[in-house]
Design a protein that fits this description.
312 residues; alpha/beta; 9 helices; 9 strands; globular
Length: 312
């Protein structure tokens, strides 16, 4: 049974008419899901990235409503206002990435009576979760990925040794500890705009900071050993499985220092109906970039969905 949940629309600027509820997943975790009904073109499922939360996507939600969609967005377990490990905002942790599929199942339950078809819009970590969900049969007509986490942007030696070190630490019971070197990492609310890895738009960056400053419970600290080890497990597994046969678009910025640009391209090359969008000069948050970078990406998504609709 869903329970009412907070939704800070006045602060975030989210469109009117949104409703947030807490849902209990099949493994007992409480996740927050927000929905906006009324669009008749179908339902857009927003799958956010690590550290993110529904309010951050207010402008994305507004854009999708403007395109004619109903919309649903989720706080993954361990972030936003969903259940946190040890009730703390300091550590991001899961044992296995499969745990997120329980959250996806709750999201699908929440949109059971909303318009079809479903269209997925996934960012970063949400891109790994979303691709797995599609592999497992999530019934979407299309998927649009922003900087999907199908590989991490790491120096060659670090990329080679990090998975081994993290998996070894996990074996020795260190899974719920901070990942090596991560504990001192500054959250977006504490670090300045200069040199940030997320966006070249100072207004968008300030907006991210404002939301965390006003609602500290939405913040999330660095990942655990277990989360990073599980992420490497999942990214490897996604390259070692059959991929879904549906129209997929993925974009990545040439200035992205969070996910691996080459991994996105390589994964798309394995798909039969895939489109890649190169966003020159953009950082990690393609939907929260400067208009001259963000708008062409949205235009490509609009064409992608229109082409899908023409075949339905």
């Amino acid at each position: 049974m869903a329970e009412p949940a907070p939704l800070h629309s006045d602060l975030s600027g989210a469109p009117a008419g949104g409703t947030a509820t807490f849902h209990r997943t099949s493994d007992g975790i409480r996740v927050r899901i927000a929905t906006w009904s009324g669009g008749t073109r179908g339902t857009a499922l927003i799958l956010p990235g690590r550290t993110e939360y529904i309010e951050k996507y207010a402008q994305v939600i507004a854009h999708l409503i403007g395109m004619g969609f109903s919309v649903a967005c989720i706080d993954w377990r361990g972030q936003g206002l969903s259940t946190r490990i040890n009730d703390t905002t300091e550590l991001g942790h899961v044992k296995h990435f499969w745990e997120y599929q329980h959250d996806v199942a709750s999201l699908l339950t929440a949109v059971a009576d909303m318009p079809r078809p479903l269209h997925m819009f996934a960012h970063s970590m949400g891109g790994a979760i979303g691709l797995r969900a599609l592999i497992e049969g999530l019934p979407a007509a299309s998927a649009s990925f922003s900087a999907p986490m199908w590989g991490l942007h790491l120096p060659a030696l670090q990329g080679f040794f990090a998975p081994f070190i993290l998996r070894t630490l996990r074996i020795f019971g260190q899974g719920e500890n901070f990942a090596p070197g991560a504990r001192g990492a500054e959250h977006v609310a504490l670090r300045g705009y200069k040199g940030n890895p997320l966006t070249t738009d100072p207004e968008q960056y300030r907006r991210m900071q404002m939301l965390i400053e006003e609602i500290p419970d939405l913040a999330l600290g660095p990942p655990s050993v277990g989360w990073l080890a599980a992420a490497f497990d999942e990214m490897d597994a996604l390259f070692d499985t059959d991929l879904p046969d549906l129209p997929i678009l993925a974009g990545c910025g040439t200035g992205d220092t969070v996910v691996s640009y080459s991994a996105v391209v390589s994964q798309l090359e394995r798909m039969r109906r895939a489109t890649f969008v190169n966003v020159e000069g953009a950082k990690h948050e393609l939907w929260m970039e400067r208009p001259e970078l963000r708008d062409p990406f949205w235009d490509a998504i609009s064409r992608h969905i229109a082409n899908v609709e023409a075949t339905l």
